Amino acid sequence: MTQPRIVLYSALLCPFAHRARIALKASGAVYETVEIDLKNKPAWYAPNINPASKVPAISYGAPPDSDVTKPPAGTFLLPESALVVQFIASLYPQIDYKDPIIRAKASFAQLQWDNLVAGRWRKYQFEGSEQDLEPLLEGLKQFSDSVPEEILGDEYGVADIILGPFVTRLFIFANEDIGKWAPGSGPKLVSALSGPEYDKLRKLGAKLDKWPALQETIDNDILVKKFTEILKNH
Ligand SMILES: N[C@@H](CCC(=O)N[C@@H](CS)C(=O)NCC(=O)O)C(=O)O
């Protein structure tokens, strides 16, 4: 039986959309991508695909020749990156860790990132105030503590898909010194992360660096170039 048609509505720079691209790549699913220009969103996107007007979203099972801008009534449409990833993992369970305990431990690490790192990183990168560094380092330490040893081997799972775009971007932007911080603060952050308390964070970063499903779905040069512009105008 041929696979139902999958159309991904994506945007190149978006880390949430990157999650969906990794999941689809890792699963080996056949899919089409429709790139949405977030600065100039097409008028059909919100009414026909995602009322929240965000990427990513997917359509699943639309007739082969139907218009991607107007899937026929009854086509399954799904927004929200975490839901899209979970849906792909339900279709292709091989993309997740097999052991439910490892999955649960990895989900806890995901939550730690969401609660203790995501907002603090964004604040530090977009505002660059020195006083925001300490809370960020503390969040990264607690995140690192929570990463289960079991996911630091050769196996990849949903947690890597959910965390991957964000962990990878943190290292890319810090190494390239792309932030509103004082020049040189990005590389300084990377050296601050060389201590033993961040061991598992670094190991996770290194593991993600050699994951084809992640690396083949990101363009580092474009990301760096565009993000430099975004921050300049922020
Ligand atoms: N919670 C959403 C967040 C998605 C999101 O914020 N996407 C951004 C791009 S990275 C977006 O589409 N922004 C367009 C807008 O807010 O108008 C998810 O996980 O999918």
Automatic annotation (TrEMBL):
Residues 4-96 form the GST N-terminal domain. SUPFAM superfamilies: GST C-terminal domain-like, Thioredoxin-like. GO terms for cellular component: cytoplasm. This is GST N-terminal domain-containing protein. It comes from Naematelia encephala.
